[in-house]
Design brief:
- This protein is of the alpha/beta class.
- The chain has a four-stranded antiparallel sheet.
- The structure holds one RNA strand of 72 nucleotides.
- ATP binds at residue 686.
Amino acid sequence: MPMEKTFDAASAEPRIYAEWEQAGAFTAGANAKPGASPFSIMLPPPNVTGFLHAGHAFNHTLMDILVRWHRMRGRDVLWQPGLDHAGIATQLVVERELARTNQPSRRELGREKFLEKVMEWKARSGGTIIEQDKRLGASMDWSREAFTMDPAFHEAVIRVFVDMYEKGLIYRGKRLVNWDPHFETAISDLEVENKEVDGHMWHFKYRLADGETYEYVETDEDGTEIMRETRDYISIATTRPETMLGDGAVAVHPSDSRYAPIVGKMVHLPLCDRVIPIVTDQYPDPDFGSGAVKITGAHDFNDYQVAARNKLPMYRLMDMSATMRDDGAPYAEAVERAREIAAGAEADAAEIDSLNLVPEKYRGLDRFEARKLVVEDITNAGLAVEVPSSDPRLGQPAQRKVEPEEGADVAPDDRLVPLVEPKKIMQPFGDRSKVVIEPMLTDQWFVDAEKVVGPALDAVRSGETKIIPESGEKVYFHWLENIEPWCISRQLWWGHRIPVWYGFDLGTPMSGGTGDLDEVDLLKLLLDGGMVHSGDVQKVGAELPEVTGGFQDEIADLPSPLSHARIVEVEDRNAALHALAESLAHYATDQDPSKLVYPVWRDPDVLDTWFSSGLWPIGTLGWPGPEWEEMRRYHPTSVLVTGQDILFFWVARMMMMQYAVVGEKPFDTVYLHGLVRDEKGVKMSKVLGNVIDPLELIDEYGADSLRFANAAMAALGGTLKLSRDTIKGYRNFGTKLWNAFRFAEMNGTFEGRSPQAAPPAATATVNRWIIGETAKVREEVDAALDGYRFNEAASALYGFVWGRVCDWYLELSKPLFGADDAAVIEETRATLAWVLDQCLILLHPIMPFVTEELWGTTAKRAKMLIHADWPTYTAADLVDPQADSEMGWVIELIESVRSVRGETNVPAGADVPLLLVELDAPGRAALGQNDALIRRLARIDTITEVAEAPKGSATIPVRGGSFALPLADLIDVGAERTRLQKSVQKLEKELGGLRGRLSNPNFAQSAPEEVVAETRANLERREADAAKLRAALARLDEIG
RNA sequence: GGGUGAUUAGCUCAGUGGUAGAGCGCUUCGUUCACAUCGAAGAUGUCAGAGGUUCAAAUCCUCUAUCACCCA
């Protein structure tokens, strides 16, 4: 049955993919040669709830190309697939789903029920991306599919946490973190997007305490006094007025002479019954605003540093949803205590955190509502800095324009108004929630990144791990050299729960260590708030039994029998309070020590998703189980292919963690690529509606086309612009390949042939030539893929298949098939069959479907194409220089004739005579050998030798001689003259350059010999061409 | 403000010191003989600008301009 005219991708692709899967073609080690070295790639795990987008399609295509290539070369290949649980993203999706379907919210459900819902969701949508990857043709080892919440992976994550904690690489602390008020969790600084928004800068007066005043003097650059006044206040500027309620001080730069007289004095905090000091610090910029900065340690990262350096108290003003606090004692009480602390009373961090210094009026307000009210109240109190309404800092309010006749006697521009500057400010937003991030002082877990960064840096510095393109290394160094502690706790429910338990530090309220539990002790614990205000102790271990020993040691010193209390796990700290109180109360009445319990509770938080995915390389390979020994042949992995946007999120962290945990690099090479954009280079986004769905493209053009387009745009460091036109172009390329096979089939190429890996021993020049061309392209493709230059591999193959095989070899083979020499026909069939097989093999990594289909339909094969042997022949083996040169000459002649015909308007269908004017021996040989095909392809009827080109003929210079087309009747003389003049002009320009270089003595002296020789030869050839063309022009003039 | 990169044909982009390229688009011509998802031919360039290094610069260096991304 003859072949269809085109490849039906839609029906063939699923069938072929199923065949590969059934054959186990993707399994780790499939098609490996004995003793083969491993080649392994970890799939960057997509979100479990995710869908395949254009970026995945690109990223996965590149990996699949590498994997298929190495598999065909006989390496021991593993492509490890899997999914990431993606804590915050998945929780977001499920919460939205609950809201959309009017189900109870997360908090209403409770942790356990909510997690069931997440698992339901995962079961429903978790497989989507896998099915989509199959459409793309990804040859991952699905039998090894992993998930970051698998029990084995979970065990690895927990074990690493415990291990790193014990090594002192992980600690807990109350720190200022980026707090997402929507999700009510900490997020890392990488999950924050800073955006410039329109904001305002307010200026307030903080009055000096006790009615003090000072001389405020401003000078210009030369030190000349430009302003002097007596002030009873210091002027501060802020973009976040609501945080002033928590100010701990006003800071000025130590060199700022304006404020030198009042450093150390106290100021009244507006709207509050507190005074705060004026301190000095390096942070305030004397040239910015008034040079004085309010310091709110608990709500600003810079202020936090200042507060820490100056030991200022940091009062938290907001609750976890970023509304003004409404908890704790009344304001009057809280402020009383704050004054005591300011006066030197001792207070620990927990107590300071419990103090709510928000005045009743603002309690419970949204932070932005509170801002409005604070500004209003301060202004009403006369504490806003005022300026004339003409002040340029106010921007351009519309009301400034005053009609002259009305405003003549008033001076409206001198009216004083509060100074509120419109100002662009950088505001942090959560990258998932899109709400304004609030710096928040909370207890969190951190990786002491500074301690683990060393080996990760060294590996890249020494070249142990290579990052390409190289620019990625610079970025990597820059970030790692300035690394900050990594906050790894998240206040989420979906994720790996932190393996830490807490209990009360009863040693603090209880004095004795040896006595029995008496009533005094009991009362202290129960009545005095002893438990409530006691600190906590923490124990770290994978499971509760691993930490009970630690807690037992902890209470061993307590009065008996509390020292032997049973350790029980409860839900949280509150539950623990109740449990302990109840147990003590019982003991007080019945004195039964067996009912005494020491309650402990587990940390409710989960680990940052990137902490777990940071273990992806070893966690998926069986670490820390017994299979690790077996699977570690794939570790370190060969290459990581990923987007440069997660260089910090993931790549750097994998480097750090693999070294910290197993002391090995996770990969030899990191290949970074950019974001896939639309055809205009714009980021794809749902909002813009420019998202290109790869599955739609596959439906329309076939997976191979999309894959080829992906490979073609993968220039190192290049921008990735995906357009339908490009994909369409590669679909056409597939059709071209398909039709080359149709041509071969029609010429009996595949009939009864058994495929050969080795090229046939050809005698015909055309056949020898194309065999050599094939060897050249094989080398090009390997070199390109070896250097991760996917675009070069793609373009080499495109050029070879279309430009060499289809445009020339197939055309040149037609006269051979038409000859009546059976041996020539058979040889040409064998050559064509071999060349087309090579096309399939070399194209397979990029376009696996159409190539596998053609492979299967054109011959009985020992193996599927996916496992065919990748060739190793070289140009040195197969290029026949004589054939190469001869075919070069023939092609050049045909192109010249066609060009002349085209430009002188010779009718396309007309066969014309060709005159040989002069020709050297190799040229004559080439002409003799290829007479038939030259005549056919250039549409020549006869070739005859003449002594001299006749008048009015077009000249065709070739290597070693020249031809003429005697076209007196057919030729458009004017067109031919124009053509010749243009050619001469172009040649002259080139000649000028060449002569200039050669006449420069320094060139001959300094340039390499071969360059000089080449230039000289080039000049000679061009000069000969120019002479021929001039002669032709002269002849034309004779008739013209 | 700091960092990284980009600027080459109408468009999208390759091109790491030695004769400026590809695809798409455009113009003209062409359907028996694999393919109109095709073929033949053609036009199109201040390689962002200025300086420097070099026998030789799109390519290396410096500055400028514009744009993009990352980080503050």
